[in-house]
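Q: Give me the 3D complex with magnesium ion.
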Amino acid sequence: MTGRGGPATATATTPWNSVSGPARPGTAIPAPIRAVAAGRPVRAVWENKLGGITFEVGAHADRCFVKWAPVASGIDLGEEAARLSWAVSFTPVPQLLSQGADHAGSWIVTAALPGQFAVAERWKADPGTAVTAIGAGLRAMHEATATAACPFSWMAEDRLADTRQRAAEGRIDPASWHPAHQQFGIGQALELLAEIPPVDRLVICHGDSCAPNTLLTDDGRWSGHVDLGSLGIADRWADLAIATWSTEWNYGPGWDNLLLRAYGVPPDPDRTRYYRLLWDLGP
Ligand SMILES: Nc1ncnc2c1ncn2[C@@H]1O[C@H](COP(=O)(O)OP(=O)(O)OP(=O)(O)O)[C@@H](O)[C@H]1O
Ligand SMILES: [Mg+2]
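A: Here is the predicted complex, encoded as structure tokens.
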């Protein structure tokens, strides 16, 4: 799921158009999640802008996470399950334990990765460590999966075709765009997006490289990635543009270059601009 939303003070994703963030106290627990828990403690930890909720189940060696998406969200978590199952042999991502669907929604159950996400209070208080780990983690993921044959695409061409389709169906609302993009109407934005920059380097992109999707161990190193529903082949700047952008709304301005140094690449303003606009028009 794309990582967006939340007020700037939340540990969330893009603040300008929606609300992802820590789950609200008293969040209802759907029946399939109770069944997975089988008597173990259940805690709602995260709610995304589409009403999807992630629950932490258990507290010890069998601790796991259940991500649930309501039917109304239009999200099929089977796509994330397929990507997790593919990626787990190459790079640290959660092991898929089970998946399911019923009339109300779909869910995936994953084994817990070690540590806490990069926007836990302790990492928000230490952005240098978190941002360095995010950059290093993204580089490691790109390197680890680089030579693997991947059945999933996140290429700009495919995303642009989807964006055009949603524009034609009236499903894009410029009012939800970042202030930097408000100067464009849909027509002009689509014209800009038609000029896809030449590929810098094709890698297997994470697909939602926002800060909350990297986990860190207590020593400040990345331990793995979650939220892989859009993983696929693309130019590495599709991830880098969003990873750097996400530092702004999670830690404040001025962390972009540290992330790029930790990744090991000089800034690329043109590709960064392009992929941020493509993201903003995305689902
Ligand atoms: N297997 C796991 N191990 C550790 N933490 C996990 C795991 N799965 C999920 N989480 C935690 O739950 C949070 C929410 O999961 P995830 O990012 O997949 O949900 P999402 O709703 O798609 O998020 P977004 O708001 O970014 O779209 C993650 O940021 C992470 O902190
Ligand atoms: Mg996420």
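A quick observation: The longest helix spans residues 127-145.
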